[in-house]
Every structure is written in structure tokens, then in C-alpha cells.
Amino acid sequence: MKIKSFLTCIFLCAIFTTSRAQESDWLKEGDRLMQQGDYFHASVCYERVLFEGGNNAALLFNAVTGKLNCLKAEKKFAEADRFLKGILIPDFSNEQKFFLAEQRMLCAYLAGQFENCISQADLMKILFPSEYKSNLAAILRVLSYNELQQWKEAEQAWKEWAAAVDSMGLQNPYQNLPKFKSEEKAERLATFIPGAGQFYAGRPVEALIGILFQAAGVYYGVTSFLNHYYLSAWAGAGIFGSFHMGGVRRSKALVRGYNKKKMAAFNAMVRAQMTGK
After folding, report:
1. 3-state SS, residue 59
2. To 10 degrees, what angle do helices 230-275 and 136-147 make?
3. What is the CB neighbour count within 10 angstroms for residue 94?
4. Triad 131, 133, 137: Cα angle to 5°
5. How far apart are alpha carbons 224 and 21 in whole angstroms?
6. End-to-end CA gap in the chain
7. What is the rounded radius of gyration, in angstroms, for the C-alpha atoms of the chain?
């Protein structure tokens, strides 16, 4: 009976050792494939480790970060956020949990999910109060509020960060907010005054070209009508209508692009201030 129990223990230890070695091999293979840029197959290897990793927290953490890096390299930020959301491994250290929470917040921000990013920041303030204050999470919270143009909340978040890092002497960027243009105003101007929408968006040359084409369409249509060329008159009206409606849509797109550049410049300034880079 003793011999049988002893042999059973040896057999189980051999299986455990072999399994642990296989998991380590899958991790090494994933690292190798990721270095070669084969992110899909590297992710499969990391998933294999997560599936068979048991309770080895160090091995599992390396597999999680490996797959995360693959998804980020492929710019699949929304998928990376969902992946981290599903990771529930209680054996991770508090530092590891904070790192993954911060990375999830970064992926949400890069995916353009600014409300999601802020919600995660609020949760991190509760779960990791000491680590949160001066880290990436605090910066991403400010930048997300900026993207949503929630200036009051953004300024409050910036002041909280400045107090946490003892940088209250810095100039408050929210004393000089960027001035955006209205897409609705551009649309109205372009609708009633040809070219006015493009002028408002800061594209005078494009506005003049649009005016010329619309004027040519009107002139051609009126001249044709007066000379009883009614089909040609309709063609002239069609030219005018096409360029006019195109100008209306173009005005909104130009203003949207203008506002996006303004926001990017403001966020870059705030980010440089907060990171020192």
C-alpha cells in the first residue's frame, strides 16, 4: 500500500512538472513570435498559458502582459480593454493589479472611449488611492475630460493632480481654453451664402473656388433658359445644386477638422505639462 501511494505521488509530480514546463515553453514561444511581429500566433500562445497556467501568478501575469502588448501593437485598443476587463486573477499582487487597471484605462483612451476611461479612473481612485494620484491614470482622466470638452471637470481633475504632485505653481491651462468653431453655424452660412461656410472654416481659397463653380452653374442655367435650351438650363441648375450642397457638407467637415486640430494642440500642451515631456 505504501509503495502504491509512493508511486502515485511520483506520477503526479511528474505530470505537474511536465505541465509547468509546457506552460513555460508556450510563454517563450509567444515571446519569440511577438518579437518577430507575428502578433496573432503569439496571442494564441499566451492564451494557451492562461488556459493551462493554473495558479502560477508570475506565469499568468507574463501571459496577460504578453497578449496585451500584442493587441496594442496591432492597435486593437478596444479589444485590449475587453480582454483586461475579463482578467480576474486574485493571486496577482496589488502592484500588478494597478498596472493592468492603468493599462486598461490607457487602451480605453486610445480607443476613443473617453467616458469609459473616466469611469475606470473613478474606480481606480477608490481601489488604488495612493498609487493613482500622480500616475498615468490621473493624466488620462484629465485628457479624457478635455476630449469631451467638459472643462469644469477637467480643471478640477487637473488641480487634483497638481496638488498630488506638489505642482500648484504651474500655470493653469484652463485659464486660456481653445476657441472652437460651430459646425451648425458653418452649415447655415454655407446654405444661405455660397462659400461663406468655407470662409468661416478658414479656407478662403476653397471658398472662392466653390463660389466660381456655383456662379458658373447659375450663369449657364439662366443663359440656357433665356435661349430656350431648357435641358441645358436644368444641367446648369444641377451643377449649382451639386456644388452648393457639396459646399455645405464640406464646410461642416472643415470645421470638424479645425476643432480636432485645436483640441489635439491643447491636449498636447496639457500632456507635456503633466508629463514633463
Report:
1. helix
2. 150
3. 10
4. 80
5. 85
6. 70
7. 30
CA distance 48 to 46: 5
User: Which residue is listed with cell 451643377?
Assistant: 239
The residue written with cell numbers 497638481 in the block is: 162
The burial of 165, by beta-carbon neighbours within 10 Å (0-12 exposed, 13-18 middle, 19 or more buried), is given as middle
- Picking from 114, 94, 97, 100, the residue whose alpha carbon sits closest to that of residue 71 is 100
Cα separation, 217 vs 51, in Å, equals: 67
**List of residues 6+ apart from 37 with CB closer than 8 A:** 73
The model carries a pTM of 0.75
Residues 175-232: tens digit of each pLDDT: 989 899 998 998 888 888 888 888 888 888 877 877 776 766 666 667 776 776 767 6
Residue with cell 486573477: 89
**Distances in whole angstroms, Cα of residue 271 to Cα of each of 30, 180, 275:** 34, 20, 6
Cα 13 to Cα 9, 16, 49, 52, 58: the distances in Å are 6, 5, 19, 16, 20
Cβ contact 196:190 at 8 Å: yes
